[in-house]
Amino acid sequence: MVGRLISTRDKEKKSISYTDALLNGLAPDGGLYVPTEYPQLTKDDLIALKSKSYLELAFEIKKKFVGNAIPDAALKVLLQNAYTKAKFHTSDGNFVPLRQIGADLFLENLSLGPTASFKDIALQQLGQEINYELNSRNKNLVILGATSGDTGSSAEAAVKGLDRIKLFMLSPQVGMSNFQKAQMRAFTGGNIFNISIDGRFDDCQDLVKELKQDPEFSTLGAVNSINWGRISSQVPYFVSGYLQVASEIGQEVDFVVPTGNLGNILSGYIARKIGVPIRKLIVATNENDVMAKLIKTGVYELIAAHITSSPSMDISKVSNYERLVFDFLDRNPLSVKEYMKEFSSEGKVDLMKFGMSTDIFVENGIFQGSSTHQNRIHTIKSVYDEAKTIIDPHTADAVTVAKRYKVDDGVPMIVMETALPVKFEHTINEALGFTPEKEERFKDLESKGTDSSFYNISSNSTQLKEYIRNNI
Ligand SMILES: *Cc1c(COP(=O)(O)O)cnc(C)c1O
Questions:
Q1: Among 52, 104, 182, 22, which Cα is nearest to 415's?
Q2: Residue 444's pLDDT is what?
Q3: 395 Cβ closer than 6 Å to some ligand 1 atom
Q4: What pLDDT shows up at residue 443?
Q5: Mode of pairing for the β-strands spanning 4-7 and 253-258
Q6: Would you say residue 451 has pLDDT above 70?
Q7: Ligand 1 pocket check for 312: Cβ under 6 Å
Q8: CA torsion angle for 293, 296, 301, 304 (degrees, to 10)?
Q9: How far is the CA of 140 from the centre of ligand 1 (A)?
Q10: pLDDT band at 446 (very low <50, low <70, confident <90, very high)
Q11: Is 263 touching ligand 1 by the criterion CB < 6 Å?
Q12: What pTM did the predictor assign?
């Protein structure tokens, strides 16, 4: 049924509503919520969407995932509140504009939002939806999140001042850029609590999952891309990107996506599932290439993440992969449980043992490539020289991979631009020998907030639980 969700690990396949999944975040059994079935878009639907604004398009797509959990009129208002021209610095109502950087090669700018990250698109909407639902239920919610850099400020921008929500955000002590830290510092206070962990992003993500399994904290909400609300809010921009480049409906298009937790590209996979003519979905990783190796070999192996110059992709436990595995394993929760159990106990699991090969990725249009620091630097420079446009290091990882795949076959290729370069000045300077003038809104950011804006703790749940108890 439209708008119903099940957990990837629940053998009863008991379905819940969109809004229940929204507030739960992670399922109580540790699984992720997925739709009971994928809605479908026909060719006529796509033709009709082509003439619509981004807001109208987002409404039509979201409605297919929300079902009747939020009335249409209310959903429209939430979208209007989430996507304003002022917040997204656009004058024409296209929140995800394209620009061409090569023959049949395009960038889709997903980073016009308040914190210059693609995450703003889903999180602005998520904040609105959670707030709406809490008001309807007359409830409050404590949210615990983890960030490798961009989720933090983006989620904080989305829920700052919403008084039914308290947000505790975990970030790693090392790895984030100065700009990313400054963005978070500036949001501290009121309903926003920033906590710095002596560890990596994966440790932060583990703490979130650990607390969620603890009965005392089981009602914690989530803003990470484990939240189905986020994944479903990203599907519209794949549809929009497709419609902006396809010369006729039915023509195929490729997408290349800078990938960490697999949230962004999973939404592309869903767009493909619901009927958007996407040929290839290319996962682009940095040196933390767990996902790229998995697609190449079928083996998912945990390797501790190291710090790179595209820090928002420094991830080795790829949460959203479980949603893909669920489909791969014929939507059998018992097989998923077994698969994930083997991964967590052995640190490694092979699809072959579950009767599959890497063909499963190809059948689903999923390809891979990875990039190094040198590639990134080279690509930032070459895109600047050839197309007079400055791209951020994450987008550069994807452009690097895109250029390896691009052939002259007339199939448009869209690279998702996941952040603006201003967030990663140091790397831009290394590549170009200069740092571009900052937009007015970013100018004095680094002088805002103080060091005490972050509460420092070790990577251990005892202190974290204590801190949350004391502040709620
Ligand atoms: C979060 C992030 C990514 C990774 O996105 P996932 O959905 O986790 O795969 C890539 N680039 C930037 C700039 C990000 O902030």
A1: 104
A2: 83
A3: no
A4: 87
A5: unpaired
A6: no
A7: yes
A8: 0
A9: 28
A10: confident
A11: yes
A12: 0.96
Quick check: CB of 114 below 6 Å from ligand 1? no
| Cβ atoms < 10 Å from Cβ of 433 | 8
Question: Which one of 119, 160, 337, 403 is the catalytic residue?
Answer: 119
At 115-137, the pLDDT tens digits run 999 999 999 999 999 999 999 99
Q: What is the pLDDT of residues 299-354, one digit of tens each?
A: 999 998 888 999 999 988 899 999 999 999 999 999 999 999 999 999 999 999 99
Please state the three-class secondary structure of 128-162 as a single string: HHHHHHHHHHCCCEEEEEECCCHHHHHHHHHHCCC
User: Per residue in 215-231, pLDDT tens?
Assistant: 999 999 999 999 999 99
Residue type, 88: F
| 205 Cβ closer than 6 Å to some ligand 1 atom | no
Residue 119 falls in the annotated catalytic set: yes
- Report the residue count for the chain: 472
Q: Domain residues of the chain, as ranges?
A: 98-112+229-432
Q: Which two tokens stand for residue 181?
A: 């830290």
- Nearest-atom number in ligand 1 for the CA of 264 is 7
Nearest CA owner, ligand 1 atom 2:
312
117 CA to centre of ligand 1 in angstroms: 8
Q: Two tokens at 326?
A: 């669920």
Q: How far is the CA of 139 from the centre of ligand 1 (A)?
A: 31
CA distance 170 to 145: 6
Mean pLDDT (whole number) for 237-266 = 97
- 260 C-beta closer than 6 A to ligand 1: yes
Which H or E run includes 60? helix 54-66
Do the Cβ atoms of 151 and 412 come closer than 8 Å?
Answer: no
At residue 224's C-alpha, the angle toward residues 140 and 189, to 5°, is 55
Q: What long-range pairs does 375-382 form, CB within 8 A, spacing at least 24?
A: 375/400, 376/286, 376/309, 376/310, 376/400, 376/427, 376/431, 377/427, 377/430, 377/431, 378/431, 379/403, 380/421, 380/427, 380/428, 380/431, 380/432, 381/431, 381/432
For 98-112+229-432, CATH gives: 3.40.50.1100
Average pLDDT over the chain, rounded to an integer? 95
Distance 363 CA to ligand 1 centre (A): 24
Per-residue model confidence as pLDDT tens digits over 42-66? 999 999 999 999 999 999 999 999 9
